[in-house]
Amino acid sequence: MKAQIRQDLMELMLIPGLSGHEDRIRRAITKKLGAIDVETSTDRLGNLHAHFPGDGPRVMLFTHMDQLGFIVRKIEPNGLLRLERLGGVPERALAAQDVLVCVADGKDIPGTIASKSHHATSPPEKYTVTPFPELYVDTGYNSLDAIAAAGVRIGQPVVYAPFAQERANDTVCGTSIDDRAGCAVLLAVAEALQKRTNGPPVDLAFTVLEEFNLRGAQTLAQQLNPDIAIQIDLMLATDTPDMAARGDMVLSGGPGMSLYSFHGRGTLNGVIPHPAMVALFETTAQQHNIPLQRSAQVGVLTDLSYVQLTGSGVAAIDMGFPMRASHSAREVCDLNDLVQLTELLRAAIAGIDANFSLDRDDYT
Ligand SMILES: [Zn+2]
Questions:
Q1: CA of 364 to the centre of ligand 1 (A)
Q2: Is 125 among the residues known to form the active site?
Q3: pTM recorded for the entire structure
Q4: Which residue among the candidates 191, 210, 211, 331 is catalytic per the annotation?
Q5: Which of 130, 152, 174 is nearest to 15 (CA)?
Q6: How do strand 256-263 and strand 81-86 relate by DSSP bridges?
Q7: Percent helix, strand, coil in the chain (nearest 5)?
Q8: Which of 38, 145, 180, 194 sits most deeply, having the most CB atoms within 10 A of its CB?
Q9: Quick one: how far is CA 296 from the chain centroid?
């Protein structure tokens, strides 16, 4: 299983899929699902979904396939590009970063975000972050006409230059581990669902627009009307000096379960998981000897926040894998955490039968 997850992750990380522009990544995932005989459908927003019939409460298991990035905002007369941010782009981590302007498959244009020449940097400038509107991208094209002829126009998607590298101890570093790692895990879960002989009905989904507005999955949830929603995304690894006070989530320490998430800036949403879901994952982890880490974070949010409010309410939980350097162009995860997360999801879903209770009084 690890070899398959590794291969899927490495491949998916190299395919651009900015929020609202997920078509290339969706086609790649559709192809991978087709290769294991899983039929899929796509809704108008671009959410990709596969249904596995069964008995019991209806489960929606999903992960987002889009990634954060940029949009071309302005083209300067000398061909330099100005960008607008799309999603939680870390301004601090942008100088000298390679990007890819997504024109069309085979026609994408590489460029680099500016870093002011060091020889001209004054002492106070050394420790300040360049405001985003002042940044520009150099692609080598040196006139409006030349860059337009190459296909670049205002509004086009731009992503971090896709990068995927295997590192020591089964770790992987690169772009959009958030959330192509989730996609690789769900592909491995799909394989098991395809082979099973019983279990609850499962709608497995790869959703859009998570990094943009967190609501792409909502339209799909409205159609599917699930009883249970399980969302897969990163968990903030806190085992580095800069993150130590934030929690106890260790890279390579196994999958994670979120007990609390909230985003107080703007969206005012988050998830406090349903007690049936917490009990299910705790019991399953124990029975199968899978380590399970706990996360409680303000500032983190997924599209589950909106999915849980569908219909008369959905028993929801955020599950995931520890990840370092979130939203930078060099995110890091451990393949072993992804394998254990896959095992945990397969076993937990198998543990949901027709009598599975979603009555809170049975758990509290
Ligand atoms: Zn994510």
A1: 30
A2: no
A3: 0.97
A4: 210
A5: 174
A6: unpaired
A7: 35, 25, 40
A8: 180
A9: 18
